[in-house]
Amino acid sequence: KEMTQAVTKAGHAAKSEDLHGDKTCYELRRQYHCAAYNMLMAVISCTQSKLQFYTGFLFKEDPLKGQFLWDNLIDLDKQYHFEAELEVPLDRKKQMTSIRDEIHAQGEGSRETSPTDSPPFPL
Predict the structure, then answer these.
(1) 86-116 tens-digit pLDDT
(2) What's the rounded mean pLDDT across residues 7-28?
(3) Residue 37 and residue 16: Cα distance in Å, rounded?
(4) How far apart are CA 41 and CA 102, in angstroms?
(5) Integer Cα distance of 67 and 38 in angstroms
(6) Does the reported pTM lie above 0.90?
(7) CA 20: distance to chain centroid?
(8) How many angstroms separate the Cα of 85 from the Cα of each of 82, 88, 98?
């Protein structure tokens, strides 16, 4: 228990130190904060089950106390570009819809089908 408290305290202090304006070894310090955050996340997830610990140690920022989280973890000078994740699921949905429509069109000529009929092969 004492070791968990000591590690948690050290990790929390390391990940939330104030680096505003200090660009000395910026990338190494950012990686240090990421490592401290990862360690803290592992300790909290393995030892705690209450939401207050996750909120207090992993997601809380207090600029008045000089405790910063996201500024220390994310490279603020880098531009991030995220692709839309909807393209692949939409293409897959169109493919499934066209297969279903094709099956229903083939089935209309040979027998009566209902919307609950399953296709002759798995989708």
Answers:
(1) 666 667 777 778 888 888 888 765 555 555 5
(2) 78
(3) 9
(4) 50
(5) 17
(6) no
(7) 25
(8) 9, 7, 21
